Amino acid sequence: MGRYQRSGFWRSLNQAKRGIWYTCKTQGHMQFHIAAGISVLCLAWWIEVSRSEWMMLIFAIGSVISAEVMNSALEIVVDLVQPNFDPLAGMAKDVAAGAVLVTAIQAIAIGAIVFCPRFFRMVNHFF
Ligand SMILES: Nc1ncnc2c1ncn2[C@@H]1O[C@H](COP(=O)(O)OP(=O)(O)OP(=O)(O)O)[C@@H](O)[C@H]1O
Predict the structure, then answer these.
(1) Dihedral (CA of 25, 30, 35, 41) sign
(2) The whole model's pTM is what?
(3) Burial of 24 (0-12, 13-18, 19+ CB in 10 A)
(4) b/e code 79-105 from CB counts within 10 Å (16+ = b)
(5) Domain ranges across the chain
(6) 6-20, 22-36, 41-55: which range is least confident on average?
(7) Between 103 and which of 33, 63, 74, 95 could a Cys-Cys bridge form, CB atoms 3.0 to 4.6 Å apart?
(8) CATH code for 28-126?
(9) Which stretches of the chain are assigned E, i.e. beta strand?
């Protein structure tokens, strides 16, 4: 339980939503990830991917967005602890950004596995 407020499911949910909303408002990368995620889900719905493919895509999108939220949290903490230039503070942010990059590469790989075979089949069909 936190030191400043009583615990409670709805209160915790609201705090988590506030954190996600803050990340959406302040982080351009988060806005890009959400737009890309929605586009991928629309494409998946349009081409009618299988249940297991839906799971892979949702997992990939969720991983990237979670990593971006964690990255934002770490940036806030670093700015709080060290507002001045410090190579270690910079490295902490770079390491967190690296985690986002890893999940983004994973998402691109999953997207390629799901969409590329269909894309090539479609190209073969038309030409
Ligand atoms: N206090 C600091 N000391 C040294 N370098 C820093 C510091 N703060 C930021 N940096 C460097 O600047 C980069 C960008 O930091 P910034 O806080 O602007 O994050 P950002 O642009 O929002 O990052 P991201 O694109 O990952 O969301 C960091 O990755 C780090 O290399």
Answers:
(1) negative
(2) 0.89
(3) middle
(4) eeeeeeeeeebeebeeebeebbeebbe
(5) 28-126
(6) 6-20
(7) 63
(8) 1.10.287.3610
(9) none
53 is catalytic: no
pLDDT band at 40 (very low <50, low <70, confident <90, very high): very high
% of the chain with per-residue pLDDT over 90 = 87
Say if ligand 1 is within 6 A of residue 94 CB.
Answer: yes
Q: Taking a C-beta distance cutoff of 8 angstroms, is the pair 34, 24 a contact?
A: yes
How far is residue 69's CA from residue 71's CA, in Å, rounded to a whole number? 5
Q: Which of 67, 68, 69, 72 is catalytic?
A: 68
Lookup result for tokens 């959400």: 34
Is the confidence at residue 1, as pLDDT, over 60?
no
Judge if the beta carbon of residue 93 lies within 6 A of ligand 1: yes
Q: Is 70 in the pocket of ligand 1 (CB under 6 A)?
A: no
